[in-house]
User: What shape does this take?
Amino acid sequence: MRLEAVTLHRLSMPLVRPFETSFGRQTSRVVLMVHVRTDEAEGWGECVAMDSPLYSSEYVDGCENVIRNYLAPALLAATEVSAETVAPLLSFVIGHRMAKAALEAAVLDAQLRGAGRSLASHFGATREWVDCGVSVGISPDIDSLLAEVAGYVEAGYRRIKLKIKPGWDLEPVAEVRALLGPAGRLQVDANTAYTVGDIPHLARLDEFALLLIEQPFAEEDLAAHVTLARHIRTPVCLDESILNEHVARDAIERGATSVVNIKAGRMGGYLEALRVHDACVELGVPVWCGGMLETGVGRAANVALAALPGFSLPGDTSASNRYFAEDLITEPFALGTGKNSGQLAVPTAPGTGVSVREDLVRDWALAAPVGIRR
Ligand code: OSB
Ligand code: MG
Assistant: This one.
């Protein structure tokens, strides 16, 4: 395809409830959406970076800047682009994986819309429905946490993930375990809030039969995760640390992680995410699909990815109404019923399979769109 134009839209979408983690509290999702126009079709990609550099070094202003000044001009200068050539064309820029992933996703959407093919079929999906979990933020108190979790259980979610931090760990986990009963699937995510000195404390989580503990230590500290894995029975799962297939293999081989959270944005795109998936299947490591409070656009692509065979644990792929009163797409994601309770249907229409509501793109704009042309 020939890329004709890239347009960046910065939006702010109100969250249905504040989302608090060890790194901060959000009441709205500021999101950068990437639109591409090619000679064949148009496509949308969502940038998963947050408004501030608290989860990752990337953030919305930085992504907009690097796309505008480096990434989009490089793609627009190429005579031909396809999703497969985006990463090689952009490899001259160091890092900035979330920014690169958003462009690749938009090009992939356009390419598959042009070809009349869904993301799920392109990825090699093997299921029509995916199991959904929900990520539960840090609450002001235990009672409000239990009320929130009970609501999600009632809605059908197949797994609960609690955000933890020092001072908010053993007690909320014990209370939620009691609420769910021994069979309820429960896991925790620390977003790097602990240090190696906390290992004896974290080992006390073993009594709660958790599916996994996600990223207790710093992104670059694989060694601390290896030490933790030797001291606890709960499986250790890495999120922030897993930047690509190479790091995934290294972390698994070293014993730093025995489960992998796959987020395409963090890895530079869906094509690298597929390679991480394949490596984990080869090494016998289960994976699950992470989330970044995506709009329906990013969610559609995540759900297609989560339909691959290695995704054997429920993902942070919740329904649209867990995040937003109104989603950015015409048909929001809703949990199924009956045997599909707690599941989302994998989109089957071309590209991401969802249609963006241009009215909301206008209504929620924080700034005028930024157009970049050849
Ligand atoms: O660590 O998985 C994380 C949200 C934003 C940034 C990082 C994370 C999260 C979540 C929410 O846990 C996942 C979701 O439901 O989208
Ligand atoms: Mg995480």
About this structure: DSSP finds twelve helices and 13 strands in the chain. The chain has two domains: 3-116+357-373, 121-345.
